[in-house]
Specification:
- The chain is of the alpha/beta class.
- It is built from nine helices and 14 strands.
- Strands 6-10-9-11-12-8-13-14 form an eight-stranded mixed β-sheet, with helices on both faces. A six-stranded antiparallel β-sheet has the order 3-2-1-7-5-4, with helices on both faces.
- It starts with a helix and ends with a strand.
Length: 319
């Protein structure tokens, strides 16, 4: 009986996630659904769906949680739900103040993903693995760093290298990051993680997660945030400024292997940016070896250093 109720409630969504050519769907706000298509040149395609109202989506999350015996209370409890839907579709959802549609949003929103298509027949050959054949390099990251600083930055953006934008207060770190986002493929799916809304995302397929340092009342922490973000299939992850509270979370997200990971940090030089990032991680994760951590960062992260002298703002290092 419970599955009958759930299947009935899912009817308005089934047409989007059940076709075999759909890999998954993402809903970033009511009335709009994004389809990720298998093997398409433009993987994400948007559709208007007015029947997918905010109340419908919240009712759906509540129903899935109740049927599966999961906690769900966006304001004072757990705001996320992970479950398996009929047909073996993976369901990921969040509602409440940790999702913000825009600067004026005070009640919070809803975001969810559903993996579509079920389990398909496959073989090792589908993964280009066969006896006597060399393994492919998929999206190999360029290790060459051009001499020209502009080319060095553009190569980092184009090959998906993680970028840490460093600078003192008022050097324009967030403004610089906002401009960098205009250079990213407009078809990309962007997820931002901040403690207050500052980042401006021009790509239409985006969702903003907020984890406030001062106004957090529900049971949503950085560990839950990492798990949620990686399940939401981002093409680009944007973190707010690195702090003692979020440093280890941002490092863990970076370690998940996603391309295009960008964040900012308060530091006076590129070398200091690596050291400061490491020290903030060690504040909550003291088991790391500091020297090893910094060495690993230097291998993986590009730093763009911004400096200011009165009204003059300038990029002074790109490493």
């Amino acid at each position: 009986m419970e599955n009958v109720v759930l299947e009935s409630l899912l009817k308005p969504l089934e047409e989007f996630y059940t076709p075999s050519f759909v890999e998954e769907i993402a809903i970033n706000r009511p009335g709009e659904v994004w389809l990720r298509l298998h093997g398409a040149r433009v993987p994400w395609v948007a559709y208007q769906a007015d029947k997918l109202s905010k109340q419908y989506l919240i009712d759906l999350i509540h129903t899935v949680a109740n049927i599966r015996g999961l906690p769900f209370e966006p304001i004072r409890g757990v705001p996320v739900v992970y479950a398996t839907l009929p047909g073996n579709h993976r369901f990921t959802a969040i509602a409440g103040p940790n999702v913000q549609y825009d600067d004026l949003d005070v009640t919070g929103g809803v975001a969810l993903n559903i993996r579509g298509g079920g389990v398909k027949e496959t073989s090792f050959e589908n993964y280009h693995l066969s006896r006597g054949q060399k393994l492919l390099k998929v999206k190999p990251r360029e290790s060459v760093r051009p001499d020209d600083p502009y080319d060095r930055l553009m190569s980092a953006i184009n090959d998906g290298s993680p970028i840490l934008i460093s600078g003192a207060t008022t050097t324009g770190k967030t403004t610089f990051l906002n401009h960098m986002l205009t250079l990213i493929d407009p078809n990309s799916r962007i997820i931002t993680v901040e403690d207050a809304r500052e980042i401006r995302v021009p790509q239409k397929n985006h969702v903003h997660f907020i984890l406030s340092r001062t106004e957090q009342n529900n049971d949503f922490n950085y560990a839950r945030l990492v798990d949620l973000v990686v399940r939401m299939t981002p093409d680009v992850i944007i973190g707010g400024e690195v702090s003692q509270e979020n440093a280890s979370m941002l490092w863990e997200m970076l370690e998940t292997g996603h391309d295009h990971f960008y964040t900012t940090i308060h530091a006076e030089s590129a070398e200091a940016a690596y050291s400061t990032f490491a020290d903030r991680i060690l504040h909550t994760q003291p088991a790391y070896n500091r020297n090893d951590l910094i060495a690993e960062m230097k291998k993986k992260i590009r730093v763009v250093q911004l400096s200011r002298d009165d009204s003059l703002r300038a990029v002074t290092e790109i490493v």
